[in-house]
Structure formats: C-alpha cells, structure tokens
UniProtKB/TrEMBL annotation:
Keywords: Coiled coil, Kinase, Phosphoprotein, Transferase. It comes from Massilia glaciei. It is found in: Cell inner membrane. Residues 128-172 form a coiled coil. It catalyses: ATP + protein L-histidine = ADP + protein N-phospho-L-histidine. One of its GO terms (cellular component) is plasma membrane. This is histidine kinase. Residues 182-398 form the Histidine kinase domain. GO terms for molecular function: phosphorelay sensor kinase activity. InterPro entries: CheY-like_superfamily, HATPase_C_sf, HATPase_dom, His_kinase_dom, HisK_dim/P_dom, HisK_dim/P_sf, Sig_transdc_His_kin-like_C, Sig_transdc_resp-reg_receiver.
Length: 541
C-alpha cells in the first residue's frame, strides 16, 4: 500500500527559547491532528528546508537578524514549487496597517502575536493542516483518475484495434471465399471445355473439321489452365520472397513493344483504339518478370475496357526512373476500392456471369514484382466508368552494350537424340511419348523409378526425362543412381516436376540433374531443352 506522508509544519525563529516553545506546543497536538513539526533557526535554514520538503504552513518570525521574516517569505514565494505555501507571521508587537500591508504583499496568510495563545495557535494550524490534507487527497484522486483515464484510453485503443483487426480478418475471409468461388469457376470452365472437346473427338462420325476445332479448344483451354496455375504459384512465391530475379540491363520499351505484338497477334487488342509511345527505358531487372508486369497491366486494361474504348500505353524516363503508364477509358475504379486495388484477391464488382474472368491476383502480383525490383506502382481513377491509370516506376540504369552479331554456319541437321521418359502418370507418359515420337525422337519409357534405372542401364539413352514424384524411388534417387554408375554417368538428365520454387531447383541440381522444367511444359520449351542437352553432350564428346 502507498505510504501517505503526514503534512509538515515549519517553525522559523532565531530565538532558541521561542523556537522551543512553539515546537513543543505544536508537538502536543501532532498525533491528534496528524502532522509533523520541523524547525529552522534562520531564514537561510528555512530556505534549505523548503527545498527539501513541502509544508502545509510555515510559522515565520518577523524579527530575525540577517534575513528577516519579510525577506524570507519573499524568497520562499519566488520559487514555483513553494509559491503557494501559506505563511503565518509571528511578531512580538501589534503590527500597524502599513506593516500588515507589507506582510500581505510578501505572501502572509495570517498573523500570530506573542505571547502566543495555545488555542489560537492550534485553531489556525489545524485549518492549514486540514487544507493540506484535503489538497493531498485531491491530488491522489486526480492521479488515480488520470491513471484510470490512461488505462481506459489504452483499453479503448486496444478494443478499437481489435475491432479493426477483426473487421480486416472478416474482409480477408470474405475475399478468400470469393476468391475460392472464382477459382472454382475459372477452373471448371476450361475443364468443362476440355472434357466436351475430348468427348467430341471420340464420337463416331466426327468430321475432320470438328476434330480440328476440338483439338484447338483443348490446346487453348490447357494453356488457360496453365496460366491460372502459373499466376497462383507466382503470387505465392512473390509473397513469400522466394522469387529469384535474374538481373540484367533491360529495355522496358522493347519489352512492352513485344507484349503488344503478342496481344495484336492473338487479336486481343483489335477492338480497341491503341495509342502507344515507347521510348527506350533501361532498368536493371529480370526480363521475364518485367514482361509479366507489362502483360498483366495491359491485360487488365483490355479486360475492363469495353470494345471501342481507348487505351494509351507509354514508356518514358522521369528523373532517375523509367515510368510505364497504362491508361484506359474503361469501367474505372470506385473510391472505396482504389486504396485496395493492389491487395491480394481484390477485384471489382463480381457478377455471376464472370464475363471478364480472372482471379483478381494480377495487380497484387504486379505490385510485388515491381517492389522486388526496387520500384513502385500507383493507380488513379476519377471514379466508376471514368477510366483508370496505372503507373510503374523503376530505377533507371545504363543502356546495355549489345554484342556484334556473328554469322553462324549451320551444319546439316543431326540425328535426333535417343530419349528415355520416366513418368508414372499413364496418360501423361503416353501423350508425351507420342508427341516426342511425332517430332522424330526415338523414345523409350518407364512407369516407375526402378524400371527407369533398369532401362537406362540397358538402353543407355542420350537424354532421360525424369518425373520427380515417382513411386518406389523418386526422381532424385533415380538421378543419384544413374550418376553413380559408370555406364549411365554421362546421360543428360532433365527433371520434370510440378514444384517450381528455388529450393526445388536447388535439390534437383544437387541430385545430379542437368536441367529443371516445371510442368506443364510447353512442347517447344521441352524440345529446346532436349536439343540443348544433346548439343552439350556432343560438344563434350
């Protein structure tokens, strides 16, 4: 429990007998009135006591040598902490009006005349002690109220913060629920088209044109599914900081130009009025990721702009930055959505028909990729149906010095390398083997790791395509066993896996693979990888 100090009374008198008499009288009532008595023999000693203690009242002798009572009182009241201490002047004569005025001007609260009448002394001192006690109590109450107010304020802030966090969590949960619903819709649509096209191909009497259209649908929808998976994986890697950038000097203007060529080739941009101003803009970055940023921004503009609308795309230097700007005349962004437009899973008004499609993660991925490059992204819109503007700022760097082209002499086309495909998925193995065979590659295949190692020892292929997730022994163990055997040590190994993080690539290379490809692999990328491995083997030989 907090110890409460007793109020203190200071008696100041240069006469020892008078000082003893006053302090003795006061000590008689100290326990009853609950106070403590201190004494001083001079004005200077009184000032030292005032520096050390707070007093309920000071009994101050007027006639003292050196510093008299008036001077002592004035000095006491000049100090802020002791300015309000009541002073009772003790004098041996009846003060006239001039002396009283002088005393009051020096801060006197009252007078006592000697010889002192004990009852008057007790009455006057008791009043000031009671006032001091009451003031101290009020101070304690005020301190408690202040502490309680601080605690209530902190509690209120904590409750407000918890409410905001709960509301934010609810918004995120709702956004995730909506995202899962969108994901289900986005996956089911291409899967439904693929399933229908596959059934159509198998129907008796299906014409050649029908089969051709069905095959095109399967290819197109498979690519769409691949893009969805890639977006999800890229976002996951970007948010967890697992994307590794291959920095090099990159011309943003050239990349955006290439992206636009792709959109034009597919007919995506034909219904729109495009204005393009692309200046050379060199940055230090990963060309694949910067292309991804540009593609997402342009795709976003196309997606949310009605046919016949206008889209302006520019790349230009601005101070120490290169700025990519995409401006459209589309549906715009509402004021409440604008601050969240780069958040994960945020999308505009969701409708049942989902005519615009997408998962609502493109802009979140854009922001994260730009931040990984040390840049910034911003969005502006004057409101619904008033268009949108997105701006990407990346730190500028020196232009790359391009090497002088060297004419290459192409030899006659070499024989295709022999391949071993180790894949446990029957459909995937059959389709890939058939496709590689159609491109002229001699292909043998195995359904598990043990069979794959056995066939590699028997056939000695030039290149082995190995799935990582195999039954029996996985792809890592297959690679280790092939590398450990003198007969198979020089086979070029390409890992085929659905795991594409940097850690997965590291494990693949440590196991002895030469290359790492992430499923689904575009056929041209697979052919390029096989030829690259075969060329490396030829050069090594």
């Amino acid at each position: 429990m907090l110890k409460i100090e007793k109020p203190k009374i200071l008696v100041v008198n240069d006469d020892a007998a008078s000082l003893l008499a006053l302090t003795s009288l006061l000590d008689m009532w100290a326990d009853e009135t609950n106070y403590e008595v201190l004494a001083a023999r001079s004005g200077q000693e009184a000032l030292r006591q005032v520096l050390l203690h707070d007093f309920a009242v000071i009994l101050l002798d007027v006639n003292m040598p050196g510093m008299d009572g008036f001077e002592t009182a004035e000095a006491i009241h000049q100090r802020a902490r002791s300015a309000d201490i009541p002073i009772i002047f003790v004098t041996a004569f009846l003060a006239d009006e001039i002396d009283r005025l002088k005393a009051y001007q020096r801060g006197a609260a009252d007078f006592l005349f000697t010889p002192v009448i004990p009852q008057i002394l007790q009455a006057k001192v008791s009043v000031f002690v009671a006032l001091a006690t009451k003031n101290e109590e009020l101070k304690r109450q005020a301190a408690k109220l202040s502490q309680r107010s601080t605690e209530l304020s902190a509690t209120n802030k904590r409750l407000t913060r918890e409410m905001e966090e709960r509301q934010a969590a609810e918004r995120k949960n709702n956004a995730k629920d909506e995202f899962l619903a969108m994901l289900g819709h986005e996956l089911r649509n291409p899967l439904s088209a693929i399933s229908s096209a596959a059934s159509l191909i198998g129907m008796q009497g299906a014409g050649a044109d029908t089969v051709t259209r069905a095959k095109a649908i399967i290819q197109r929808q498979s690519q769409h599914l691949s893009r969805i998976v890639d977006d999800l994986l890229d976002l996951s890697r970007a948010m967890s900081g697992k994307i590794l950038l291959a920095h090099q000097p990159v011309d943003v203007g050239a990349i955006v130009s290439a992206c636009l060529d792709t959109f034009k080739a597919t007919g995506r941009s034909s219904p729109y009025s495009l204005t393009v101003e692309l200046s050379p803009g060199w940055v230090s970055g990963d060309p694949t990721r910067i292309e991804q940023v540009a593609t997402n921004l342009i795709d976003n503009a196309l997606k949310y702009t009605q046919a016949g609308g206008s889209i302006a795309i520019s790349v230009a230097p601005a101070g120490n930055d290169i700025v990519l700007t995409v401006r459209d005349s589309g549906v715009g962004i509402s004021a409440d959505l604008l601050p969240q437009v780069f958040d994960v899973f945020v999308q505009g008004t969701i409708t049942l028909e989902r005519s615009q499609g997408g998962l609502g993660i493109g802009l979140a991925l854009v922001r994260r990729l730009v931040e990984l490059h040390g840049g910034s992204v911003s969005a502006h819109s004057d409101g619904a149906n008033l268009g949108s503007t997105f701006a990407i700022r990346l730190p500028a760097t020196q232009a790359a010095t391009l090497p002088v082209p060297v004419a290459l002499q192409l030899p006659g086309e070499p024989a295709k390398p022999t391949l071993l495909l180790i894949e446990d998925n029957d459909d995937g193995r059959e389709m890939m083997a058939t496709m590689l065979g159609a491109y002229g590659y001699p292909v043998e295949h195995a359904a598990d790791g043990i069979e794959g190692v056995r066939k590699a020892l028997t056939l000695r292929p030039q290149v082995a395509l190995v799935d990582i997730g195999l039954p029996g022994i996985d792809g890592y163990e297959v690679a280790r066993r092939l590398r450990a055997n003198e007969l198979t040590r020089n086979i070029k190994l390409i890992a085929l896996t659905g795991y594409g993080l940097a850690e997965d690539q590291r494990r693949v290379l440590e196991a002895g693979f030469d290359m790492h490809l992430v499923k689904p692999v575009a056929i041209q990328n697979l052919l390029d990888a096989i030829d690259q491995c075969a060329d490396a083997e030829t050069n090594a030989g």
